[in-house]
Amino acid sequence: MSSRSEGQGQAHLTFKGSADGEIAFGALKGFLDVRYGTRDGSACAEFSWEGRDENDPACGRGWVVFGTADRLVGRFYIHNADDSGFVCERA
């Protein structure tokens, strides 16, 4: 799934296999540790991530649920820093 990150090119959130994935969002790039389940009755993925933000080590967490029109809706957190809501659509 991907979304447009203003000024930074294509952002993406990729789930691989049963517990892995990748995220790119602005200057941040990281690898995911994913757990699948349900949230308020909807399928969801919750994840922690580790990577780099503008070449500095960074980590955090996030979650996504299925929204309308085959989109994922979620929130992304950087440990001890910013957080952001997002919507992704299949690339």
Provide structural commentary.
- This protein is globular.
- The termini are close together.
- It is mainly β and 91 residues long.
- It has no helices and eight strands.
- Helices cover 0% and strands 75% of the residues.
Task: Name the features.
8-stranded antiparallel beta sheet, single chain, globular, 91 residues
The biggest beta sheet is recorded as: 8 strands, antiparallel
The total of helices stands at 0
Structural class, please?
mainly beta
Question: Which regions contain 5 or more consecutive residues with pLDDT less than 50?
Answer: 2-7
Could you tell me the radius of gyration in angstroms? 12 Å
N-end to C-end Cα span = 6 Å
Q: Which strand order do you get reading across the main beta sheet? A: 1-2-3-4-5-6-7-8
What's the layout of helices and strands?
Elements: E1 2-5, E2 9-16, E3 20-25, E4 28-39, E5 42-53, E6 56-66, E7 71-78, E8 83-89
Antiparallel strand pairs: 1-2, 2-3, 3-4, 4-5, 5-6, 6-7, 7-8
Short description:
By secondary structure, the chain is an all-beta fold.
